[in-house]
Amino acid sequence: QVLLQESGPGLVKPSQTLSLTCTVSGGSITTNYYYWSWIRQPPGKGLEWIGSISVSGSTDYRPSLKSRTSISRATCKNQFTLQLSSVTPEDTAVYYCARGRTTREYDYWGQGTQVTVSS
Length: 119
Hints:
Strands 2, 4, 5, 6, 9, 10 and 11 form a 7-stranded mixed beta sheet that branches. The chain is an all-beta fold. It has strands at 3-7, 11-12, 18-25, 35-41, 48-54, 59-61, 69-74, 79-84, 93-100, 108-109, 113-117. The radius of gyration is 13 Å and the shape is globular. The N and C termini lie far apart (39 Å).
């Protein structure tokens, strides 16, 4: 069974960079045919795909967030990370990492981590 675990600060100040790490166990992030994604759910709203990284290391981002988003990976640690710059209170959400055969469909999820943007 594949397990994903998000980690990172729960409180970020406006204009700073949000940085989260997803640690994967029970499967390699270099396994063919899988995408590793970040998704968030703002309070009272639906799930919102942020971006994904493929087994080859190529990335794809939500257009509205693309200028502020970077997803990278550390294959030796079996981790991938999310950086979202210039955050505002609108970036407050529960952030999830997930695995899937595509960038929009997922078979394994992390438990999620609350990130609040506030001064």
